Amino acid sequence: MNWTKKLAGISAVSLLALGLAACGDDDASKDGNSSDKTAGEMVDYKITGIDPGAGIMEATDRAISDYGLDKWELTTGSGAAMTAALKKAVDKEEPIIITGWSPHWMFTKYDLKYLDDPEGSYGGAEEIHTIGSLDLAKDKPEAHQILQNFKWDEEDMGEVMVAIIDGEDPADAAQSWIDENQDKVDSWTEGVDKVDGDEFTFVYVAWDSTVASTNVMAKVLEDQGYKVKMSQVEAGPMWTAVADGSADALLAGWLPVTHKTYAEKYDGKFEDVGTSMEGVKIGLTVPEYMDIDSIEDLKK
C-alpha cells in the first residue's frame, strides 16, 4: 500500500513536471527570439529610425523599396529615442532593427552588426565632409584653413561620444579630448593666425557624432580667438543655413549617400571644405544575438 501511494505521488510529480515543461515551451514560442518566427514577426515589421529629415531615413525608405519589404514600417523619432529603444531591447535580449551609423558610441557599448546590403541601397563606405558657406574662405580665412586641416578618426570621435553619453557635458568632454590630443589639434592650427573676437556660427544636428565634432571644433576656434555660436537644427535646415550664408559651416556632411539629396539641392551654393573622416558607414543594424545577417532575410 505504501509503495502504491509512493508510485502515485511520483506519477503526479512527473505529470506536473511535464505540464510545466509544456508551458515553458509555449512561453518560448511567444518569445521574440523564438526560432520559429521570421525576423519581421519578431519585431512586428518595424524598423526603429531617427528624425525624418536624416539621410539615413531616405536611404532606408529606398531599401524598403529595393528589397520589396511591403509589410515593413520605418518609425521616426530621434537619435536619442532610437538608442533608448536599443538599450531596452539589448538589456532584455529582445529583437530590434534600427537605422545605424558608425562612428557611433552604440557600437562601443553594445555588440552590434550591420545587415548585409547586396542591393547597395545604403551605398558603400562614406566620408564625413566639412561644408562651408561660399564666403567662408574670403570672410574668415583663418577658420577656413583650420577646417581644411581638420581630420580625425573613429577612435578620436568615439572617446568624445562615450564621455558625453556617460554624462559629461559636451563642452567639457571636448576640452578633455583636446587636452589629451594637443599634438593633433596643433596640426590643424599650425601656421594659422589668431583673430580677435570674430564671430563664427556652426549648425549641427543632434547626432552624437556631430555633437562631438562640433563641440571639439568650437573649442579649437575659440582658442584661436573666435566667438563661436552653435545652433542645433534638423538636417534640412542645417544645409539650408550654410547654403544661404546664415551659418558659416557644418561638420556633418555625410557623402556621397546620406546627404546626397541636400548636396544636389544646394549644388553651387556651398563649398566642400574638406573630409574630416573616411570609412564611415550607414545601414540597418541589429544586435549580434539576432539570427539574421542580410536585409534579404527581412523578406521571409
Automatic annotation (TrEMBL):
Coiled coil (residue ranges): none
UniProt KW keywords: Cell membrane, Membrane, Signal, Transport
Pfam family, one: OpuAC
Subcellular localization, as worded in the UniProt entry: Cell membrane
The keyword Cell membrane is annotated on this UniProt entry: yes
Gene3D superfamilies in alphabetical order: Dipeptide-binding Protein, Domain 3, Glycine betaine-binding periplasmic protein, domain 2
Signal peptide boundaries: 1-22
Superkingdom assignment: Bacteria
Main location as per UniProt: membrane
PROSITE patterns: PROKAR_LIPOPROTEIN (PS51257)
Residue span(s) of domain ABC-type glycine betaine transport system substrate-binding: 38-180, 201-300
PANTHER family hit by this protein: GLYCINE BETAINE/PROLINE BETAINE TRANSPORT SYSTEM PERMEASE PROTEIN PROW, GLYCINE BETAINE_PROLINE BETAINE TRANSPORT SYSTEM PERMEASE PROTEIN PROW
UniProt-recorded name of the protein: Glycine betaine ABC transporter substrate-binding protein
Source organism of the structure: Sporosarcina jeotgali
